[in-house]
Amino acid sequence: MVTEIISTGWVQPTPVPNDVLDGASQADEGLFESETRLCEVPTDMHGWRIDRALARLIPEFSRSYLQQLMADGAVQLRGAAVIKQAARIAAGERLQVELRPTQQAMAFVPQALALDVVFEDADLLVINKPAGLVVHPAAGNWSGTLLNGLLAHHVGAVSLPRAGIVHRLDKDTSGLMLVGKSRQAVEALVRAIAAREVNRQYLALAHGRWSGAAEQGVDQPIGRDSRNRLRMAVVPQDGTTGKPAQTTVRRLDGSDQACLVACKLHTGRTHQIRVHMAWLGHPLVGDTLYGGRVLWGMGRQALHATRLRLQHPIGGQSLDFQSAPPADFMDALAQSGLQYNPSSLG
C-alpha cells in the first residue's frame, strides 16, 4: 500500500468533543485547509468498493467524511471525479483524494451572534430565540446557527454535548429556550424535560372557529408522514411508526376566522404542536407545510414559546420566564381582531 502526500495545508484547531460533533470525527473537524493524497490500490483491495477502500487507505478519517468528499467531487480515479460510492477499483490504480473541509466539518465553529439573553448564571442560560434562527447546523444551514453563537458566547460550550442545547425550536418558531452551561446542568435539564418537570407553554394563532371544550388534551402519536418526508403526521397507535405525543390546548380568544390558543407540551416530538393543531382541524396561520395559509402578514407558522417554568438544574430554586410575542405575531393578532392577555396563561 502506497500513500503519498503531494500538498498540505493542515491546521489543527482546538479539538471539539465527539458528542458535540454529533457524527463527525475530531480528525474531520481538524481539517480546516486542504491536503491532497495519492493512494495506490494494493493487490488485496482489487475489486473493492471505492468507499470501503478509502476507509482503509486513509484510516484517520471517518468513512462518512470520505463519502462526503466523493459526493463533492474531491476523489479522482483515472483523471475523473468518482461520485458513486459503489464504484469498483483495480489493483495498481491510483486514487487522488483532496482532503478538504466539508460543510459539516466547518459547522462547529464559534460565530458571534447577538443573542437575546433572558437569564444567565454559571450553569444556565435562557435565551429568546428570534424566528429565522436555526438551532443546530444541518444541510442548508451550516453556519449562523444558535450552536455557533453559543460556542462564541462562552468558552465552556465547546466541551458540552451540542454546546449545551437540550431542546429545539423550529427555525421559524420564536421564543424561550433553555441551554445548559455546565455538563452537570445539561444532564439535569435533560432528565427534567424527560420527566416532564419543565413546563413549556406556547402561543399559537390558528385558522378556524374553535369548537368543543375550551381546554382539550391531544394524545396522538407522531411519526414521519409516509406521503411527504418533509412532514410529520399523526400515525396509528400501533407503536411501530410513531412516538407518543401529548399536548394540552386551551382556547384564549376566538372568532369565526381564527383562534388564539395556549399549548402546553408534555412531550417534545418534531413539529408536535403544528401537527396536533392541524389534526384538530386548526392549522397554524402561516404554516403552509401543515395546511395553514399566509394571512395578516404572517409568513411563518404563528407559534411562539412564551413561557418556561422549572427548578434551577443546580440550585433548585423555582424559575419562571415569560416572553411577549414578537412584532409579526402581534401585528397578525391585531389584524385578526383577537386579543392576548399574558395573565391568561395561568
Secondary-structure blueprint:
Blueprint: E1 2-7, H1 18-21, H2 26-30, E2 35-40, H3 50-57, H4 63-71, E3 75-77, E4 80-81, E5 94-99, H5 103-107, E6 117-120, E7 124-129, H6 146-153, E8 174-180, H7 183-194, E9 199-207, E10 215-219, E11 222-224, E12 232-234, E13 246-254, E14 258-265, H8 272-279, E15 303-311, E16 318-322, H9 327-336
Globally, the shape reads elongated
The biggest beta sheet reads: 9 strands, mixed
Instruction: List how many beta strands DSSP finds.
Output: 16
Helix coverage percent: 10-25%
Amino-to-carboxy terminus distance? 70 Å
Question: Strand-residue fraction?
Answer: 25-35%
What structural category arises from helix and sheet content? alpha+beta
Polypeptide structure, described:
The chain has 9 helices and 16 strands. Helix 3 (50-57) crosses helix 4 (63-71). The strands form 3 sheets. Strands 6, 7, 8, 9, 10, 13, 14, 15 and 16 form a 9-stranded mixed β-sheet that branches. Strands 1-2-5-3-4 form a 5-stranded antiparallel β-sheet. The protein is elongated, with a radius of gyration of 24 Å. It is of the alpha+beta class and 346 residues long. It has helices at residues 18-21, 26-30, 50-57, 63-71, 103-107, 146-153, 183-194, 272-279, 327-336; strands at 2-7, 35-40, 75-77, 80-81, 94-99, 117-120, 124-129, 174-180, 199-207, 215-219, 222-224, 232-234, 246-254, 258-265, 303-311, 318-322. The model is unreliable at 5-32 (pLDDT under 50).
